[in-house]
Queue: 2 jobs
Job 1
Amino acid sequence: MYRVYEKYSTRTGLRRIPQILLYLLKLSIVSFLIYIIITSFFVTSFSIGSVSMKPTLENGDRVLVSSLNYGPFIPFTKVRIKVQNRPQRGDIVIFKPPYIKNYKFPLNILEPIVNFFTLNSRSLLKDAAGHRIYPYMVKRVIGVPGDTVKIKDFLAYIKESGKSVYIRESSLIHGKYHVITDFNPSGWKEGLPFSGNMDPVSLGKNEYILLGDNRPESSDSRSWGIVKFSRIMGKVIYRYEPLSKFGKI
């Protein structure tokens, strides 16, 4: 009787394995759908992976990004729900830089799945050398549609639509922020990228100039140009890690 009971118990355990796997699969699917709804229509979390926004945001900081501010995208599509708000000077935003191509099937389906299971720390995208790249950047909005923007010694000067004079960025952007400008390597020419200078650029409809606060160490509009509104995913609203810096950005 003992052997019969032992054999029966083993088979019962084996029969339960598919049930457990099916339950875990259902749980994963439901969790993923909830994740897609929350991140697409409300808020998502990002980890800062560079020093380009120092001292405002440090490498390793984790932030919350609102999808509602500029209008959320319908999941797996390029369709955006229209709202009245648009990015304003001084906003810190998450966006896809111009050199990242828009997702096509099946990448537009697989990429969110990878983001979900890796907590937005991995991507399927690769650069020309075959290295994995992350498709999003974080920068500050400096120029908005109608502006003409130029940069001298790492500082931006803005001529607003209908105006005839350039005004330093700090006089037009509300709120306090610090721009790092210290960069004097020997032999570095002004015309090279990251030199701190940019010829005047006039912005049309839905076009923006985005710059990092740490200008000498930021890859931004100085090197890859304007950013279309359709590439701006959301506004950084809160930092929640480290806890010592928790609060509104």
Note: The chain is about 25% helix and 25% strand.
Job 2
Amino acid sequence: MPRFLGHRQGVKALKTAVRYASNRGISSLTVYAFSTENWTRPREEVNFLMDLMYKTFVQEIEELQREGVQIRLVGDRTSLSADILEIWSQAEELTFGNQGLILNVAFNYGGRQEILTVLKRLVGQVSQGELALDEITEETIASLLYTHPTPDPDLIIRTGGEMRLSNFLLWQGAYSEFYVTDVLWPDFGEHDFEQALQNYIERERRFGQVSAKEQ
């Protein structure tokens, strides 16, 4: 089937995931919608994805607002069109005060580009005397990431059986648990989400420390 149909179904899967995460009491959800590498796809497909994103937010923003979801754009905004930036600004401003699920939409996002942007900013601050080298800490870097102030993810779910990060949350995912499923994203539903959470619950997170079972 054409990839266009998969993209449309992927939006439906996203709506299901957002609603499920909200009902499950998850505080934040970050979805990888469009990567910096996706610009190399056929122009027709890129244009379709941009139009799909725009129409989706126009159609869904009121429902997300009613459900208390707070929307944040995670990614490089410098190369996005004016209409895309406008709809993002409207979505962020409208949902800013919501106290429910924080939905980070990684759009025009790349983990390496994110880290590079932070480094350039820090170099500029140091060169201008605004920041000393010994003042640069992990916390300093984290505060400048696109995802700030969202905490690092506890769990990263990879669909389609892919065993790679694909330039996603390279800094933030340092100690995240990974769950890989063969289910493709357009087919990812509540049952699949629940399976991922149950798998996560059964794990012991050590963060480099000795297992509690060995103490």
Note: The first strand starts at residue 28 and ends at 35.
